[in-house]
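Protocol step 4 of 6: structure prediction from sequence.
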Amino acid sequence: MPPLQINTAALSDWGALWRGTAGSLTAAGDPKPKKPDRFDKKQGMDFGVVFDTAFANALATMLGGIPVVDPVNDSLLPPPGHSNAVERGKTRIVGGIRPQNYDAAYRPDGPRVVYDSKTLNDTKSIGKNWQNMVNDLATEASTSRSGAP
């Protein structure tokens, strides 16, 4: 698989947001107060998309330059007309334990490659979310494996 290409300008913008030197705005357009050296939940999820996109693009290149498409929300199949494409975004896979959403997937005839990014903001976040992430990994492993021959 080719190396992941991360947009360094985008990372610089995220770095300024992380450090608190750039901020997001409230719905009214006012600066939103921010704790330094961490993202809020939405920012953390949006930051993950930078890496999800890089992974999806590299996977699509490895698979012969196939397209990268947005999945159909909660669909168990790739978008119509795109069975041979990498999906980037909330991609639903059903397996042995429960449905699981992944951040990128290649599933032309069932899940072949799935990818799920995780973000942790700080020590408190790690302590609070560590066990949940371990549980997610166990579910993801069972879900993605259960459809394999």
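Step 5 (inspection) to follow. The mean pLDDT is 83.
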